[in-house]
Amino acid sequence: MSKVMHFSREFKPTNTIVKINNVKIGGKFFAIIAGPCVIESPEQYIETAKIVKEAGANIIRGSVFKPRTSPYSFQGLGREGLKLIKELGEDLKIATITEVMDPRDIKITANHVDIIQIGARNMQNYDLLKEASKSDVPILLKRGMSATIDEWLYSAEYLMVEGNENIILCERGIRTFSTTTRNTLDLSVIPLLKMRTHLPIIVDPSHATGNRDLIAPVSKAAIASNADGIMIEVHYNPDIAKCDGAQSLPPEMFIELIEQIKPILEIEKKVVTGTSMNLEEVRRRINYVDEDIIDLIANRLHLVPALIEFKSKNSIPVYQPEREQQLREKYEHLAKKYNISPELIQKIFNLIIAEMRSLQKQKMNSDD
Ligand SMILES: C=C(O[C@@H]1C=C(C(=O)O)C=C[C@H]1O)C(=O)O
């Protein structure tokens, strides 16, 4: 029998939700990662971060180790820049992400940022993957520019072998014959990957298109294709950007982008956690939670026929006080863990359990 891969739905049928403090990615939780391509100066990074946070981003990007095509291009601030990222994350109370290229930088970076990015050029740098796999920090793995889905997923497997489940995949466009856009965005990879993996998948429209005018429509398409997030390059003044100026959004275009994607996020029932909410947004989230609660209660009640089948065959009484007592102890423990009232939880479960008993009795009587 072939080995079950950690990334596969076979290994884990439910969607993985990567958690970074109050930010969640995966399932219904959508990530908006934004910020400069490369951190040029404290001012440029902090100002841009404040703008994108205010507009609705929940994770700040910004590279300090930068893989540039030309050795003469600005290479980033290096390890010094990591301190800036840590300070920004603490000051703005926001999650941060930065790229690592050298296995020797993994540890120190993991101590300064919330998510480590492994870039397209390093997707198959197996020494880097192995070193990153030793850390339990969430890792965003970009697709190599000519990587197949299998090659990409096997690179994710390298990251997961030591037990790290917090892996996010990122489609950033692949190399094709077409030079109209910087790369060719492979949107169909999102629904395809969703069938094969439980890991969240986000899209990087900035690198996929290389053209700021294409970012809003492509972002909308990514959300409609069930992506779990977008990563957008924003610069407080793209005209003076040291890297990727043409694909960086100026602040006003980022604010407009957020406005444009809102209705699509609503249609797809996606939620951006860790951002401030108005009353309408709070109520939208309450509605989703209520739907989930009802779905879960229905799941529990729908177990009644299976209970009855077993109990009637084996002449087991409906009421099982010992089992109920065990459950009550568990509810108490869980209520404390989640810091909610144990009395409230007991009351809710008293109703549900009474209903379970009553449904079993009704069904048994009607079967007589
Ligand atoms: C579901 C069962 O039947 C009854 C209802 C219970 C419940 O709703 O959890 C628990 C014990 C029984 O009194 C069971 O036996 O597990």
Automatic annotation (TrEMBL):
It holds the Pfam family DAHP_synth_1. Keywords: Transferase. Signal peptide: none annotated. Residues 273-364 form the Chorismate mutase domain. The keyword Transferase applies. GO terms for molecular function: aldehyde-lyase activity; chorismate mutase activity; transferase activity. The keyword rRNA-binding does not apply. GO terms for biological process: aromatic amino acid family biosynthetic process; chorismate metabolic process. InterPro entries: Aldolase_TIM (IPR013785), Chorismate_II_sf (IPR036263), Class-I_DAHP_synthase (IPR052899), CM_dom_sf (IPR036979), CM_II_prokaryot (IPR002701), DAHP1/KDSA (IPR006218), DAHP_syn_2 (IPR006268). PANTHER family: PHOSPHO-2-DEHYDRO-3-DEOXYHEPTONATE ALDOLASE, PROTEIN AROA(G). This is Bifunctional 3-deoxy-7-phosphoheptulonate synthase/chorismate mutase.
